[in-house]
Amino acid sequence: MPMTVRQVLDTPAVQAGHPELLSAADQLDRPVRWVHVFEGSDPRALLSGGELLLTTLLALPDDPAEQRRYVRAVAGAGAAALVVELGRRFARVPGVMVDEAAAASLPMVALHKVVKFVTVTEAVHAQIVDEQHDLLTFARRVHEVFTETAVEGADAQAIVERTAEMAGCAVVLEDLAHEVMAHAGAGAPVLRDWTARSREVAPGPGTRAVPEHGWLVTDVGSRQGVWGRLVLAGSPSVPAAAAHMLVERAAQALAVARLMERDVAALRARASNRFLTGLLSADSGDEEDLRAAAEVLGLARASRYLAVCVAPTPLPAAREMSTSPRDVIPEGDASDDPLAGQRREQALADAVAAAVATAGISALTGPLEDGVVGLVVALTGKLTEGAALDRLTLALKPARTRGHVIATARERDGLVQAGADLPEASTWLVPRRSCRRRTAGTTTASPTSGCAAWSCSWPTTPGSPRSPSGSSLRSWSMTTDTRPAW
């Protein structure tokens, strides 16, 4: 932190002069940029703001009007404080000067003992230079870090994580709807009710502090317009000047990274995918933090959650499952081009995300492994598992894909439990999504759990088939008449 007037007055060099504060006791926390010695009658041409002025007032006339004018000039130039050494010109500071300093909220200090001004300037300047050196060193580190992220093509989450490491506090990136796109170092206390609290912070230019929340906020965007805000939430472990510089450089790095992204939806999709990946390894102790993180990502808070997996069926017809190996015809790779496979997986992920929006259900989606897309659905209000799946299947039907197989476990009371169901559902789908059966309408069993599953074609009316009693894993395949998008 920059030195303040209070800290300068507490230095041994100043204390040797027996300082007496004459005015503006509430302004002692002003930052001191430099210490300057001046013995002229008009200091305005030599001050640029933030200086602590040392003087004996040798050149000051006895005219009270000139004395008032002198104090006004010092205050008008933005000086941090005026320190007067007594004895050489005045035995005490003229009362009109003290009154003028009080009216201008300028701290005025009288030194009752002679001090060497050079001792004061050396002590203060040494500390100021050290702080400036530390800031320059920190700025170089920030530059190196964000140059590295740019070269590596780091996404928003990686940039936010590096920012949090350097700031020593939580960092949150939000969009203009006040929904969190990426965060680091932010647990439930920071993320809880984030959207509502963020909406209380009015937009404004530049980097700005929000004392009521303990935030430091800056806009994120380019010449094409602002698309988000970056927030340092909490107390940074670095000085205020360093925090300002860091959040602004991070915003620039995010703007550059954003130019490499397709759109804000891609950032949200990555955030959702990271959440699902972390959910797979979560334990029960993480439930509250996970719910808070899911909520700021857009997942409605609910008492019941459902794990769902979707995989494509590569054959254009008769995509159904079988219990007998002789009824299964393996399907080979449609293409030897790995990029074609990535495009198919991305097309399915986009189709599922669009279907969730169309179905009007609250869910986080993201690709898992082997081309499977995972979802965690919030069963809000009176929404049942069956109704949610009906909506999803009907919303997926218009998608220009070859067809899909959906597997889901029973509804769960917590996110951690629902997340634990994703690997089982995904594993069950992988060996079946490349097979077809010659007959339809029978149930199959999960090889890993013994749970039953059901095979069917697209339903013509709402109402999805249900697996036999006792099943915890259900699946059905769906086909479309459209040609594949890939």
Short description:
The protein is α+β, with helices and mostly antiparallel strands and 486 residues long. Helices cover 38% and strands 19% of the residues.
Question: Which properties best describe this structure?
Answer:
single chain, 486 residues, alpha+beta, 5-stranded mixed sheet, 5-stranded antiparallel sheet, 14 helices, 17 strands, 38% helix
Describe this structure in words.
By secondary structure, the chain is of the alpha+beta class. Helices cover 38% and strands 19% of the residues. The protein contains 14 helices and 17 strands. The strands form four sheets. A five-stranded mixed β-sheet has the order 1-5-4-3-2. Helix 12 packs across helix 13 (385-396). The longest helix is centred in the N-terminal third of the chain and has 36 residues, at 117-152. The radius of gyration is 33 Å and the shape is elongated. The protein starts with a helix and ends in a 7-residue tail after the last strand.
What kind of sheet is the major sheet? 5 strands, mixed
Mean pLDDT: 80
- Structural class, please? alpha+beta
Give the % helix: 25-40%
Q: Report how far the terminal alpha carbons are from each other.
A: 58 Å
Radius of gyration: 33 Å
The percent range for strand residues is 15-25%
Count up the helices: 14
* Total number of beta strands: 17
Backbone shape? elongated
User: What ranges have pLDDT less than 50 throughout 5 or more consecutive residues?
Assistant: 315-335, 432-472, 476-486
Give the strand line-up of the largest sheet: 1-5-4-3-2
